[in-house]
Amino acid sequence: MNTKRFIPAIIAVFTFVFIYEWILHGYFLTGLYESTPALWRTKTEMPGYMMWLMFGQLVFSVMFCFIFLKGYENKGPMEGVRYGILIGLLAIAPNLIFYAVQPLPGILVVYWCIGGLVETIIAGVILASIYKPATA
Length: 136
Description:
By secondary structure, the chain is mainly α. Helices cover 75% and strands 0% of the residues.
């Protein structure tokens, strides 16, 4: 494994994921979360759990990068798009399971699925750009 690119890739993917999810969940989906307050931690509780949220995003970023490298074909940004779509579709499954067992608004789950797919596609392109093919 090329750690010269692996560590920067993790940092880039983690930074993107953190900012993207902060914008998606902290701004765009806030109203939906506020409509179901019994399902979520309060704003005063959240700071105590931020390290767990960030740790989860870090684990996601490390594994996202690691799995990419296991199937890396050196095909450029489109490889990142394809990888992002595959991981995004995989990530949709737990959202559907949560919807089946929790009283979540259906539209929130739809936004999670669409937002997650967009997120993994962009993260895949970022990752593929870091591992771009060498130019001749």
